[in-house]
User: Which sequence fits this backbone?
């Protein structure tokens, strides 16, 4: 988009003008960045914790597989939830569940009462909540920008207010 705007010296300059995405997009991007950082730490720490609980390589491989099961099993239901309910509340609930699971697993690890089956359950619940959060975040991204026509072209839906 080319527009005419004033230069610092007061003369008129024609050139590209950047439209800002708005504060909502910045909040969404920041929360996604921290969430992805925590996921990376978890993807590294959980298998290491599993090695302290068991020496069975199959059990440790199951930990990695359980992180992806919700993507296949809960993909369509998570999309339906995101489309039917307030996306902000769903994202907050999903991230609260993930934080709660991480806290419980951390407490169980520190107290020495963590079992491999509890770790399996924690990974599955956390990954299921992550599936809802990620689905919600990708649906929210176009709606958090200011450009209504861009949203209509790329997403085909009306932005939520």
Assistant:
């Amino acid at each position: 988009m080319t527009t005419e705007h004033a230069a610092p010296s007061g003369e008129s300059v024609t050139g590209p003008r950047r439209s800002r995405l708005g504060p909502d997009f910045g909040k969404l991007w920041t929360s996604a960045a921290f969430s992805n950082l925590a996921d990376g730490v978890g993807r590294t720490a959980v298998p290491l914790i599993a090695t302290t609980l068991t020496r069975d390589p199959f059990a440790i491989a199951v930990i990695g597989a359980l992180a992806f099961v919700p993507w296949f099993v809960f993909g369509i239901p998570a999309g339906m939830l995101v489309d039917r309910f307030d996306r902000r509340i769903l994202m907050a609930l999903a991230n609260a569940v993930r934080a709660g699971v991480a806290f419980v697993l951390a407490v169980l690890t520190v107290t020495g009462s963590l079992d491999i089956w509890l770790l399996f359950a924690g990974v599955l619940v956390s990954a299921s909540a992550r599936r809802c959060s990620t689905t919600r975040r990708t649906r929210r991204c176009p709606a958090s920008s200011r450009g209504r026509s861009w949203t209509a072209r790329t997403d085909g839906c009306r932005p939520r207010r």
